Amino acid sequence: MDRKMVLNRWRTYFEEVSTVEFAHPSIPSPPPVYSPVQKITVEEVEAALKKMKPGKATGPDDLAANL
After folding, report:
1. How far apart are CA 15 and CA 38, in angstroms?
2. Which domain of life, per UniProt (predicted)?
């Protein structure tokens, strides 16, 4: 195959893939809190960090277990 043809085909493929709109449900978000929010304690943070497994993907907060 000609290199130019291959590059053109890849360009076409990625243009098709990147412009397709997929129907997906919206991500639910909790309603806003207008009252005072409880403070997070150091103990709660430590407990949460201990429960996290190293080498796993981050969650929505984008925090890795190995800080």
Report:
1. 48
2. Eukaryota
